[in-house]
Design brief:
This protein has 192 residues and is mostly helical. The protein folds into 2 domains: 14-64, Homeodomain-like (Arc Repressor Mutant, subunit A); 69-189, Orthogonal Bundle (Tetracycline Repressor, domain 2). It has 10 helices and no strands. It has helices spanning 14-28, 35-42, 46-53, 56-71, 76-79, 84-98, 109-112, 120-143, 149-168, 173-190. Helix 1 (14-28) packs across helix 4 and helix 3 crosses helix 4 (56-71). The protein is elongated, with a radius of gyration of 19 Å.
């Protein structure tokens, strides 16, 4: 937060704050980022954070929204696919690229951000985002006439979790792409 010439605080830029939080949670995980880390990075005092977001979990929700807005665009070509084979292949290939494209921000914030946290509210928030992704995948599979779309969507989410964890562990994009390719082949064989 900055001050005017008269010393009054200006309002907090919510989008900028969410982006800062997104990057911290993505790089280090929700559990290891404290309020002091967040307020220092945002140049604000804790009361300003609480006034804007309610609590740390409320900030996580805004950070996840920012992440989906920013990173979700990468998956548009997959969701524009005309065949189930193309969709699965592009979904996993895009994930492998997306999860490894940043130098320090590895994996998927939605899938990795709250790993190892005991904060029930944070887990509920991230679970909502995972279920939203599952629903989008299931709906796309249904549009492509995949009869067992819910089970295949479960399988896709499981693969995305694995790709994300592997990327977070530092596995190269090339190796991740090889895994994505083999998994897409295996799933395509088992569709319908």
């Amino acid at each position: 937060m900055t001050t005017t010439k008269l010393g009054r605080p200006r309002s907090l830029d919510i989008k900028q704050a969410a982006t800062i939080a997104m990057n911290l949670f993505w790089e280090r995980g929700y559990e290891t980022v404290g309020i002091a880390d967040l307020t220092k990075a945002m140049s604000i005092k804790p009361p300003s954070l609480y006034a804007a977001f309610g609590n740390k979990a409320g900030l996580l929700e805004k950070a996840l929204e920012q992440y989906q807005s920013q990173e979700g665009k990468n998956f548009k070509p997959a969701f524009d696919a005309k065949t189930k084979e193309e969709f699965i292949k592009k979904l996993f290939s895009t994930a492998a690229n997306s999860y490894t494209k940043h130098k320090t921000l590895k994996g998927c914030l939605v899938l990795e951000g709250t790993r190892n946290t005991a904060d029930k509210t944070a887990l509920e928030i991230s679970t909502r985002f995972v279920l939203s992704t599952h629903e989008a995948i299931s709906e796309k599979l249904s549009q492509l006439n995949v009869e067992n779309n819910l089970t295949i969507a479960d399988l896709c989410i499981t693969v995305l979790f694995g790709l994300s964890a592997y990327a977070k562990a530092g596995i190269s994009r090339e190796r991740l792409q090889a895994v994505a390719h083999k998994m897409s082949e295996g799933i395509v064989i088992n569709i319908n």
